[in-house]
Design a protein that fits this description.
By secondary structure, the chain is of the alpha/beta class. It contains 15 helices and 13 strands. The protein has an 8-stranded parallel beta sheet with strand order 6-13-12-11-10-9-8-7. The chain has a 3-stranded antiparallel beta sheet with strand order 1-4-5, sandwiched between helices. Strands 2-3 form a two-stranded antiparallel ribbon.
């Protein structure tokens, strides 16, 4: 079945674009907004309404499939592509991208996505199309292949990469936004497998000595025991946006830092704990070195806290670099930053056979369409966990991602599709990594 036409319409995303550097530098939050001047290129305000670009592919049978171009909340930070403006990239999608895709066989998902990836950047900054464009167009191509072959999108990815699909829903990670108490309680009532994110993106929220983060972990453990049944065994996952690096500073294998992480572990016990983005070193090489230093320090002291790579782990090549030197226990595969959604699948699979788990993440600033596509990729690659998205309200994103996985598994005939995964994320991997490297 051929692709006949390509259209694009500016749309909304599920959250906002935020200038992370301005916030880290002390911008004052007033209500929902921030006071002060932006510091990251492309921003007119510190907080701006999120945008998306809605892509439609019309197929030869008259059907229309969709994909949504979206970029992360903290665009332009940590080595990521600049702020995404939908109106700027609409002519790119309806021009160069459409010219390349018209007439192509819709069943050839992987080949079509690769072709888009290699297009001339036209008005994009850098040597490729903006990651958001590649992300949204590849979702539409995935859905086109599913329509043309009569498979689920997960089935298309599984066939393309010869994977064994997950037999049950991948554990979902809920994100709380700044409503870190109320939304965490919602997650506990709904028995979310991984929670609550927490949004600790300033020294004020973490505490000048890290004390507020520790107090929150203690509260979370107490509420888990109060609200959750005895069989509920979630994993705690907290994102600190590099702020612990500002609190402590390097080196990260020294006793002061290790002892602090041990205090977090004790506060969370008996629930496993993982900390995302402990520091932001300013470039990839130094970030990898500092993450590995922290991981070694925790391992040598027997402190059982996992660290999660986020900052400076954006592209497929970045994921490989972190995994190859064992710089993290978990890597977040930040789906919009990898560009084509097939690259997210490849990044998850690269973690197979290593001691680094793959968290198929993304951003609150996506759409329902992109979230459903990612849920299918998570199933096809059997990721360790997948982000509930879009939005920061929790309930809606959790519903969208969970229902998509259950619906997909029901179509495959799996009678365990309604599993709640109360035991938390998968702890290991099944397949062998497809490439080499020095790993722990």
């Amino acid at each position: 079945m051929r692709i006949e036409a390509v259209r694009a319409v500016p749309g909304l995303s599920g959250f906002f674009f935020d200038d992370q550097r301005a916030i880290k530098d002390g911008a004052t939050q007033t209500g929902f907004d921030y006071e002060g001047q932006p510091t990251t290129a492309g921003f007119d305000r510190i907080r701006e309404a999120g945008e998306s670009l809605l892509v439609e592919l019309e197929l030869a049978d008259g059907s229309v499939v969709t994909g949504d171009c979206a970029a992360v909340q903290y665009s332009g930070a940590g080595g990521r592509d600049p702020l995404f403006r939908a109106t700027e990239y609409r002519p790119v999608v309806e021009g160069a991208v459409a010219d390349e895709l018209r007439g192509r066989d819709a069943t050839m998902f992987r080949q079509n996505a690769t072709v888009v990836e290699g297009l001339d950047p036209v008005r994009s900054e850098g040597d490729q199309l903006h990651t958001a464009v590649r992300y949204g167009v590849s979702q539409a191509l995935l859905n086109a292949a599913a329509r043309a072959t009569g498979q689920t999108p997960a089935g298309v990815v599984s066939s393309a990469y010869r994977t064994e699909m997950a037999a049950t829903p991948v554990p979902v990670f809920g994100q709380s936004g700044d409503e870190r108490h109320t939304n965490a309680e919602k997650m506990l009532v709904k028995r979310v497998p991984v929670l609550p994110h927490g949004l600790f993106n300033s020294v004020e929220k973490v505490g000048t000595d890290g004390e507020r983060l520790r107090e929150y972990v203690t509260w979370l453990r107490e509420r888990t025991e109060e609200l959750g049944p005895a069989s509920y065994a979630p994993r705690f996952h907290l994102d600190v946006y590099g702020i612990l690096g500002e609190v402590f500073g390097p080196p990260y294998d020294r006793a002061e830092v290790v002892d602090y992480f041990e205090s977090l572990r004790a506060a969370a016990a008996p629930y496993p704990l993982q900390i995302e983005g402990p520091m932001d070193a300013g470039d990839r090489a130094e970030q990898i070195r500092q993450m590995a230093q922290l991981r070694d320090g925790l391992a040598d002291a027997g402190v059982d806290v996992d660290i999660v790579a986020d900052e400076w782990c954006n592209t497929f090549e970045d994921v490989r670099a972190f995994v190859d030197v064992g710089a993290a226990d978990v890597v977040q595969i930040k789906t919009p930053d990898l560009g084509g959604i097939h690259r997210s699948a490849e990044a998850v699979l690269y973690c197979e056979g290593t001691d680094t788990r793959a968290y198929l993440g993304g951003t609150c600033n996506e759409t329902a369409t992109s979230a459903r596509a990612c849920a299918n990729v998570a199933l096809a690659t059997d990721a360790a966990q997948v982000l509930a998205k879009p939005g920061m309200g929790f309930d809606e994103g959790f519903m969208i991602v969970t229902n998509e996985m259950r619906r997909t598994l029901a179509r495959t005939g799996d009678d365990t599709a309604d599993s709640e995964h109360a035991d938390g994320p998968r702890s290991g991997t099944r397949r062998t990594a497809s490439d080499g490297g020095t790993r722990r």
